[in-house]
């Protein structure tokens, strides 16, 4: 296993700069998700790590050894990295055991040793009972676990996963998320997981690197990304959020600070840049739906523009007079077009 370091890595295809001075440390044994909208450069980052592409600037290290820099570029097969794609790339005419053992055969590992490694890997992905089956007889999730086991037997320093669950249905995806987490815990592998599905990233990763337009917008634990987004764009991208414009009061002690929104006073948590502003200043407030309270009489006025039943609760969409959209959760539905008021008991202030 190994730490991966990206030092000011840039990559262009023709005139288009797809990665822009990306710097990131992925700790030994960490599972990090690269999360971002389509085209933001996630796969390119993975391909650079695997050695399929070479950076134009900057360097990539595994531990203390250089994988790629201006002078050297280690070939993919010399990087000792396992790669799992969304297409499982299994040999259809081989059994599960033969598929998993294939890399060991190529490496001419002795038979007895091969058997022990093979069964250990199959056990880790709960496929011991499927050793003699052919891939065609397996479900998508089971095939993906075969691909994972095959990558595991090579004892890679890092496992690179490119949207490995995107071909599976919602239920199987959830089951497989648990399999990946278990696999990560048991193997202790450094894992880089590319996805555009934030719930997947939230459920599995130790940290998430949010990418927009070839740049890292925030690298943080899932909980921090949700409760303390660095920018309005991250706040809008991660989870449901309403962005309100507010005016912070002068600095007081403590981590909470008074903020005025449309003439009414609330309290907000603040990021470190906001906290360093002593004087009153305008801010954007990120308010999550679970912190909004609907009220008939008190709070900010808004109009109900949507009410969707989610099973355990309703999602109520509101529109304020300045056009700001607000999303709240409620135990009850709300009448479309009706006037309502709302307050919030938690918010996160971001300096514009
Ligand atoms: N070999 C290539 N030649 C030219 N352009 C490329 C090449 N590979 C990627 N790109 C471009 O680089 C940009 C980033 O692509 P990349 O596949 O890294 O994005 P992504 O975030 O993984 O997107 P997705 O989630 O859709 O897979 C895209 O605009 C893509 O068209």
From TrEMBL:
The entry's keywords: ATP-binding, Cell inner membrane, Cell membrane, Membrane, Nucleotide-binding, Translocase, Transport
InterPro entries found in the cross-reference section: AAA+_ATPase, ABC_SmlMolc_Importer, ABC_transporter-like_ATP-bd, ABC_transporter-like_CS, Mo/tungstate-bd_C_term_dom, P-loop_NTPase, Transp-assoc_OB_typ2
Subcellular location: Cell inner membrane
GO molecular function, one term: ATP binding
Membrane topology: Peripheral membrane protein
Family, as annotated: Belongs to the ABC transporter superfamily.
Domain ABC transporter: 4-238
GO cellular component, one term: ATP-binding cassette (ABC) transporter complex
Protein's UniProt name: Iron(III) transport system ATP-binding protein
């Amino acid at each position: 296993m190994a730490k991966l370091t990206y030092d000011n890595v840039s990559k262009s295809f023709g005139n288009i700069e797809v990665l822009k001075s990306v710097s990131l440390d992925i700790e030994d044994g960490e599972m990090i998700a690269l999360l971002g909208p389509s085209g933001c450069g996630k796969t390119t980052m993975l391909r650079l790590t695997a050695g399929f592409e070479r950076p134009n600037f900057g360097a990539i290290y595994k531990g203390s050894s250089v994988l790629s820099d201006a002078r050297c570029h280690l070939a993919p097969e010399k990087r000792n990295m396992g790669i799992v794609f969304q297409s499982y790339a299994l040999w259809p005419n081989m059994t599960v055991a033969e598929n998993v053992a294939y890399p060991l055969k190529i490496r001419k590992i002795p038979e007895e040793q091969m058997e022990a490694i093979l069964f250990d890997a199959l056990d880790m992905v709960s496929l011991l009972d499927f050793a003699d089956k052919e891939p065609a007889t397996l479900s998508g999730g089971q095939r993906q676990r075969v691909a994972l086991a095959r990558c595991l037997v090579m004892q890679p320093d890092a496992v690179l996963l490119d949207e490995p669950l995107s071909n599976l249905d919602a239920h199987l995806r959830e089951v497989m998320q648990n399999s990946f987490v278990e696999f990560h815990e048991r193997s202790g592998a450094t894992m880089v997981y590319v996805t555009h599905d934030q719930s997947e990233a939230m459920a599995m990763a130790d940290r998430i690197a949010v990418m927009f337009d070839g740049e890292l917008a925030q690298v943080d634990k899932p909980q921090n990304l949700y409760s303390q987004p660095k920018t309005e764009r991250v706040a809008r991208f991660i989870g449901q959020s309403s962005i309100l414009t507010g005016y912070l009061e002068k600095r007081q002690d403590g981590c909470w600070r008074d903020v005025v929104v449309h003439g009414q006073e609330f309290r907000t948590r603040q990021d470190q840049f906001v906290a360093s502003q002593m004087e009153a200043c305008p801010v954007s407030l990120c308010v999550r739906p679970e912190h909004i309270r609907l009220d008939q009489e008190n709070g900010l006025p808004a109009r109900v523009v949507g009410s969707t039943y989610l099973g355990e609760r309703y999602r109520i969409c509101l529109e304020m007079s300045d056009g700001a959209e607000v999303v709240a959760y409620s135990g009850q539905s709300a009448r479309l077009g009706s006037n309502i008021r709302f307050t919030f008991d938690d918010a996160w202030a971001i300096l514009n």
